[in-house]
Amino acid sequence: MLPQDGALRRLVLIMFMAVPLLFGGIALVLGQDGNWDLRNYHWYDAYALLHGRIDQDMAPAQIPTFYNPTLDIPFFLAANVLPARVFSFLLGVLQGGNFIPLYLLAAATLRLGGERPQVFVAALIALVGMIGGGHLALVGAVFYDNIISLLVFSAMVVVLKSAAILQHGNLPAALRRAALAGLLVGCGVGLKLPTQIFAVGVCFGLLFIPGPGVRRFLLSFVCGLGVIAGFAIFGGWWMWELWTHYGNPLFPYFNDIIRSPWALAESYRDARFVPKSAAQALLLPFQLFVDGKAAGEIAFRDARVLGAYIVLLATPFMLMIARAKNEVNNETPAADAFAVRYLVAATALSYGVWLALFGIYRYIVPLEMLAPLVAVGCIAFWPLVWPRQLSLAFGLLGFMVVTVQPGNWGRVPWAANGKFVDVDAPSIADPARTLVLMTGFAPTAFVIPAFPAAAAFLRPHSYFIEPEHATRFNVVLHDRVAAHDGAIYLLQATWETWAAEKVLPDLGLRLAPEGCRPIRANLDSELELCALARVNSQSANP
Questions:
Q1: What is the β-pairing status of strands 487-493 and 527-534?
Q2: DSSP label of 149
Q3: Measuring CA to CA, which residue among 183, 186, 241 is closest to residue 67?
Q4: H helices then E strands: how many in the chain?
């Protein structure tokens, strides 16, 4: 996959260093990350695991309180040690590292008849994949979709690099390669569950490579075993944690099936963006190009998925027309048939599972990055002479570039003291005897690490819980509030006071005369801590 020519090899290695550094710079230009998920759970979940707060707090980060915090740990530790700009730069460098496996995939796919054009076109395709509207919005931001992608792409690199072995090499060796590919993407699933869509693509894509059907089945099956192993490594321990605490290893998801008493008998899936009909599903790429909010919360525009979608739809017809007219392109295809067949199958399967389960665009940013390669690979097999293929491919890549409009998940000014998360929490007299309640839907859990560790944070109202829910979670929370003999406070957004008015009477609480104190935070300037009192008490300290 790397060129044999020494000068070209050095050039490729320079690009492997330069492009990630470029994306580190892009992260600095875009500014300090302040996205909703960061404020809601990425910062808190790591803190909670490191400080053993699973029994001390009750869902302060809403449903994501129960997400696997493994990925958040290195982020939290690094962001607490490094200045915000340094951390953001390094995060951008890591995310820019996607260029390396994208280049390797392109180099393994293209067949351009010479190392020099191979290197430059592969680099161009990889770079076009990196500057999509969805991916640029994630650079320097804590979402991990473009970090997990490193595992997904690496799994695909293993498959393409092992093409000869997988097709007709020694079977045990082929099975080991398939297992390694599955292990890599399985680790991604364990770290972030939506990666399951790519596990389906990586493994079931092996069913579509050339070779005997039994061999393809074995490769796909062993790849699946690798996925299970990778998932167990990074996700098994957390599933056990959820099982022992809540009786549901995926808590609260699929509780309509598992029926943990801690939550409602619901699936808790976010199905807002799942297409409601076959027609909507078929037209979604076109709709996305017009309105990015058709599959997410932010506005953006990108033609990569649409371009690949159109090319994929057109390819079977182009080949059928050529066969019907007996027009065969005698030129050697500019792409490897094995690589194109596998990439098309893997991406199409991943996209189909995404449509059925999520419909949230951020989860398929890896497909956005792969789309230019998939489109160009298919065009290489169209019955057109090479100059027309080249013109069409470069025209499509150019359209993808000039039409892009990156999204914005929320950026805030850099903190004056250089901290990534900078919170000045009001003082609490006796933290060990203090409960802090949280109401509303605003993402406020990021301020918890700034309070004394002995204070407990309970959320009786959120996307996860409502006062009227007949769940064990509600019973335990109410019992803890009723039995508490120390100070009780309310943490809320200043614009969301309606939530406290709805929830506090149910808990026998009200705002105390002592009033509210502001919480200074670089990620949110509209938070406050309010003293509470029992309904039958005049003091905030019963």
A1: antiparallel
A2: H
A3: 241
A4: 22, 8
Residue 24 lies in a domain: no
Q: Which of 163, 155, 140 is nearest to 94 (CA)?
A: 140
Token pair of 386, please? 């090479």
Tell me the backbone φ, ψ of residue 303, rounded to 5 degrees.
-105, 5
Q: Which candidate, 255, 189, 251, 258, places its Cα nearest to that of 59?
A: 251
Residue 472 domain-assigned?
A: yes
Q: Looking at the domain assignment, is residue 288 inside a domain?
A: no
In a domain, residue 386? The reply is: no
d(CA 48, CA 56): 9
Cis peptide before 513 (omega within 30 of 0): no
**pLDDT digit string, tens, across residues 302-312:** 999 999 999 99
Per-residue pLDDT at 275: 95
From CA 339, how far away is CA 336, in angstroms rounded?
A: 5
CA dihedral of 76, 78, 82, 83, whole degrees rounded to 10: -40
Q: 487: number of CA atoms within 13 Å, CB side?
A: 18
Domain boundary among 245, 269, 293: 269
Which residue, chain included where needed, has tokens 């017009």?
290
Low-confidence ranges of the chain (pLDDT < 50): 540-542
| SS3 per-residue string spanning 40-89 | HHHHHHHHHHHCCCCCCCECCCCHHHHCCCCCHHHHHHHHHHCCHHHHHH
- In the block, which residue shows the tokens 């022992």? 244
pLDDT at site 542: 45
Instruction: Judge residue 469's burial from the number of C-beta atoms within 10 Å of its C-beta, 0-12 exposed, 13-18 middle, 19 or more buried.
Output: middle
pLDDT for position 330: 57
Six-digit token string for 406? 């990156």
Q: Identify the domain containing residue 203 by its residue range.
A: 162-269
Q: Which one, of 391, 455, 413, 434, lies nearest residue 542 by Cα?
A: 434
Q: What is the pLDDT of residue 327?
A: 57
Q: Which of 515, 503, 160 is nearest to 345 (CA)?
A: 160
Split into its structural domains, the chain has a count of: 2
Give the 3-state secondary structure of 290-316. HCHHHHCCCCCECCHHHHHHHHHHHHH
Radius of gyration of the chain (CA): 26
Instruction: Output the DSSP codes for 335-346.
Output: B-HHHHHHHHHH
Q: Which of 269, 298, 320 is the last residue of a domain?
A: 269
CA within 13 Å, CB half, 394: 7
pTM of the model: 0.95
- State which amino acid sits at residue 247: G
